[in-house]
Amino acid sequence: MAKKKDSGFSGIGDLFTEYTVTKNKYISQEFQDFGYQLAVKLNDLKHKSLYMKMAKEVDRSILERALSFVSDAASAKSKAKLFMWKVSQLKTESKNKKTANAKQIPLL
Question: Which of 15, 53, 92, 108 has an alpha carbon within 20 to 30 A of 3's alpha carbon?
């Protein structure tokens, strides 16, 4: 028998080993799970419905960048407040970029 070469690739089953799906009878959509995971990471389960709504309506990249910012800030008193501030800041930046791109006059 020939030996199997180690090609450096992982199996398809290994892709999702780090992601855990929340087992809850009220969570049926992916955005609800993401919102719940946000609430857990921010230690703010009291407002989990707010995070679920944000996960549904706000661009995922904005939420992930804000969460990354909060996780880097170890000395934050309230991670939830810092997260909300960063989300609003990122939304404003995104809006400003869109308006700046719309105002550019094409060269003829």
Answer: 15
For residue 7, how many other CB atoms are within 10 A of its CB?
6
Q: Write down the pTM of the prediction.
A: 0.70
Q: Name the token pair of 66.
A: 């804000």
**DSSP code of residue 3:** P
Tokens describing residue 69: 């910012």
List the chain domain ranges. 20-102
Distance between CA atoms of residues 31 and 54, nearest Å: 9
pLDDT tens over the chain, length 108 residues: 555 555 677 777 776 676 665 566 678 899 999 999 999 999 999 999 999 999 999 999 999 999 999 998 888 889 999 999 999 999 999 988 888 877 776 666
Residue with tokens 């990249």: 61
Indicate if the alpha-carbon torsion angle 56, 84, 38, 67 is positive or negative. Answer: positive
